[in-house]
Amino acid sequence: MSSDYYEALGVSLNASTEEIKKAYRKKARKLHPDVNDAEDAEEQFKLLGTAYEVLADPQKRQNYDATGDPEGRPAGFGGGGGGFGGFSDIFETFFGGGSAGPASRTRRGQDALLRVRIDLRDAVFGTTKEVEVETAVGCSVCDSSGMQPGTRPTTCPDCHGQGQIQRPMRSILGTVVQTQTCPRCTGFGNIIEDPCKECDGQGRVRERRTLKVKIPAGVDRGNRIHLAGEGEAGVAGGPPGDLFIEVDVRTHAVFTRRGNDLHATVTIPMASAALGTTTTIETFDGTEEIEVKPGTQSGEVITLRGKGVAHLRGTGRGDLKVHLKVETPTKLSDKQRELLKMLAEERGEKPGESSTEHKGMFKKFREAWESL
Questions:
Q1: Does residue 55 fall inside a structural domain?
Q2: CB of 272 closer than 8 Å to CB of 278
Q3: Residue 129, CB half-sphere, CA atoms under 13 Å: how many?
Q4: Can you give the C-alpha Rg of the chain in angstroms?
Q5: pLDDT (tens digit, 9 = 90+) per residue, 344-367?
Q6: Does 357 share its domain with 309?
Q7: What 3-state DSSP class applies to 138?
Q8: Which of 72-81, 169-178, 305-314 tops mean pLDDT?
Q9: Are residues 1 and 66 in the same domain?
Q10: Per the domain annotation, does 174 fall within a domain?
C-alpha cells in the first residue's frame, strides 16, 4: 500500500480527519506558490491538495488504503518482475488503467493569499478592514453546473455512462479485454453538449469582491488570518478553497514594538533631569503624565503598565517603556557658560574629570537621603 499522500501531509496512517485538516492548513501556508519561491512549489502544493482531497474523504481514503488508489483501482499483483517492470505493469498493459467508475467533474478550488497593511494602532486594539479580492466565484448563470440553463448532460454513447471502455486485444496469453478511460467523455461518463456561455463550462467566473476582515488585537507582521471557504470556487460546483490574509504593520513615527511591549524615547533638558520635572507623552490610550525624578540619567526607563499591545492569545496587554534621553546643550550664551562654570566650581568639578571620579551633587544628596 502506497503512503505517499500520508507523507505529503506529514500524518500517520491512523490520523484522524481533524489531524489531516490541521496538517493540510499548516503545510498549505508554507507551500503556497505565492509565498514559496522553490521551483517545485506549485507541484508540491498540487500534491498537497490532492492528498487532502483523498484523505479527507472517507470513501476515497478507504479505497486508497485498500488499493493505493482513491477510486479503488487494483494496484496490481505486487512483487517485482522481469522486463515488464513487475506484475502491476503487465496488468496495466493488458487490462488498462481506467477508474472503477465515472470520474467526478467537481474539483476543490485553490487557496488564495492576500496581504493587508495596517497601522500600529490597529495592531494594538484590533480593527475591521475591507479588502478587495479578485478570485473565482460560482457562475450565477448556470448555478455552477457548467451547463446552459435548462439543459442536462447526456450519457456518453461510447461507455454508456461508465467512464471507461473495454476493448479485446490479442496477447501472448490469448485474447484479453483491455479497460481504459473513455476518450470521448474523458472518464466522466457523460457529455455536456451545451456548455454555459458565461463560464465556458467551468461553473465559475472571475470576479472582484469586497470582504470585511476582522483583524484581532495583538497581530504582528507576518501573522496570517484564515478565512475558510473564502478562496477560489471549485470547478463545476466543487467546494471552495480557503483565503489567507497575511498582515503587515506599518512603521510608527514614535513607537517601536518588541513582542507585546511598546518603546518610545522622550528627550528632557539637562536642567529638568537634574532638578526633576513632570512631562507628558501621547500614547494610543491618550495623554499620559510622566514623573522625572531629580538626578535622572540618560537611558533610564519609565514603565507604563498595560499601555502596550494586546496579547493575541490571552488577556491583558503589554507595557509601554519610555526611554529618557537627557539633552546636553550645544550652544551656550556667555551668561549660560558662566553660570555652568559657577555650578561646576560649586560642585567641586574640574574639567576633564570622568563621572567615576566625582559624584554629582544630586547623587550625593540622594544617597544621603536613602541612608537615613
A1: yes
A2: no
A3: 20
A4: 36
A5: 777 777 765 555 444 444 454 445
A6: no
A7: strand
A8: 305-314
A9: yes
A10: no
How many domains would you assign to the chain?
3
CA pair distance 102, 196, nearest whole angstrom: 22
In a domain, 111, yes or no: no
Q: Supply φ then ψ for residue 332, to 5 degrees.
A: -120, 140
| 295 CB neighbour count, 10 Å cutoff | 17
Residue 284: strand, helix, or coil? coil
pLDDT digits (tens, 9 = 90+) for 100-123: 578 888 889 889 899 999 999 999
Cα 118 to Cα 56, 122, 127, 252: the distances in Å are 35, 6, 9, 11
129, 116 in Cβ contact below 8 A? Answer: yes
What is the value of pTM for the model shown?
A: 0.59
For residue range 8-51, what is the model confidence (pLDDT) as tens digits?
A: 888 888 888 888 988 988 888 888 776 777 777 778 888 888 88
Number of neighbouring beta carbons within 10 Å of residue 203:
27
Query: Phi and psi (nearest 5°) for 18?
Result: -65, -40
Band the pLDDT of 94: cuts 50, 70, 90: very low
Q: What is the pLDDT of residue 31?
A: 80
pLDDT at 224 over 50: yes
What's the CATH code of the domain at 285? Answer: 2.60.260.20
**311 and 356 belong to one structural domain:** no
Q: Is residue 21 left, alpha or beta, with left meaning phi > 0 and alpha meaning psi from -120 to 50?
A: alpha
- Same domain (yes/no): 312, 356: no
